[in-house]
Amino acid sequence: MGRLCVICDKERAIIKRPKTSQQLCRECFYYVFETEIHNAIVDNKLFKKGDRVAIAASGGKDSTVLAHVMKLLNERYQYGLELFLLSIDEGITGYRDDSLETVKRNQQQYDLPLKIVSYSELYGWSMDQIVKEVGLKNNCTFCGVFRRQALDRGAVMLNVDHIVTGHNADDIAETVLMNILRGDIARLQRCTEICTTGDECIRRSKPFKYTYEKEIVMYAYFKKLDYFSTECIYSPNSYRGHARTFLKDLETIRPSAIIDIIHSGEAFEIKKEVKLPIQGVCKRCGYMSSNELCKACVLLEGLNRGLPKLGIGKTHRMRKIHGDMPQDTAIIPHFNNIKIDDNENNNVIIDESNKSKEKL
Ligand code: SF4
Ligand code: ZN
Ligand code: ZN
């Protein structure tokens, strides 16, 4: 008989917990994994009873475990949340179309309403088309900016109060490292927050802030969850890749490195004299932005004018080169005039204004 689980002292330990190196039985691993997430939710008062919460679902391991755990905790601790799945279809053939099939199965498995929002419908461009135009160098810049807005717009369509994403501790530690290396003080300050919110925008939080990626993989594996594990076919993302490799090396030497980096990120304080960008709204589409136009509008403008480099790098520099934006280009559907078709029959609530967010 092997070693006994250090928590229950009854069952045989079959798991060495990556975060703490404790030897655990399967049930106790599930219990500590789920309870730590519950504690993060409760300690940070992420939700209140009656909240409508969209789970950003890509079909990958993080968001699949998130959907599973959110549903489980909502029932176990009676959070009183109304949960939805929200997926973004970037239009990447051979990747997103397959992963969305996983999300559709998850919808059945977890019995949650699903809304899919596509880049084509929002921006008039799929990632396949964008890559044809811009190549494989800056594609993730377009994709990242467009995804962030697409999630917010999808959330408006669902009339939810809150979006939860599957960002885990490793992702956050990586972002801290990247922001330090880039000297991006504004982002460094924000990236460790478990919940962010703006005036106009929907609350967004990361219940997996303290959850290790290795444990998410273990949990998904032992629970036999149905997820999609292929990488995006357009994934160069080398900058994050370097931070990731470095972080994994640190984790091998000392597993607590991930949490230590998050805590260091949280401890950074910015001197009062340092000027941070002032948040306003985009003149064209109304999305929050610290410039006249939001990044998505600038990138879209570049695509539509056949100048895809417009908006890559510093916005003001590019605008000096290319002149001011004409006012007659396509406008991304704004929060206040999003039209939703209900023909997908997916329990979506129709609301044409985010100003009237009555509970149904
Ligand atoms: Fe988009 Fe880049 Fe991620 Fe692919 S790897 S989904 S292109 S951000
Ligand atoms: Zn046990
Ligand atoms: Zn805009």
Task: Name the features.
single chain, alpha/beta, Rossmann fold, six-stranded mixed beta sheet, two-stranded antiparallel sheet, 10 strands, globular, disordered C terminus, binds zinc ion
Q: Topology of this protein?
A:
Blueprint: E1 15-16, E2 23-24, H1 26-43, E3 52-56, H2 61-76, E4 82-89, H3 96-110, E5 114-118, H4 119-123, H5 127-134, H6 139-158, E6 162-164, H7 169-182, H8 185-191, E7 195-196, E8 203-205, H9 213-222, H10 238-253, H11 257-267, E9 280-281, E10 288-289, H12 295-304, H13 315-322
Bound molecules: iron/sulfur cluster and zinc ion (2 copies).
One zinc ion (ZN) binds next to helix 1.
Give a verbal description of the structure:
It holds the Pfam family zn-ribbon_14. Its main location: cytoplasm. The chain has 360 residues and is an alpha/beta fold. The protein has a single domain, classed as HUPs (Rossmann fold, 3-Layer(aba) Sandwich), CATH 3.40.50.620. Helix content is 44%, strand content 9%. It contains 13 helices and ten strands. Strands 5-4-3-6-8-7 form a six-stranded mixed sheet. A hairpin with a 6-residue loop joins strand 7 (195-196) and strand 8. The protein starts with 14 loop residues before the first strand and ends in a 38-residue tail after the last helix. The site of one zinc ion has 8 residues, from helix 12.
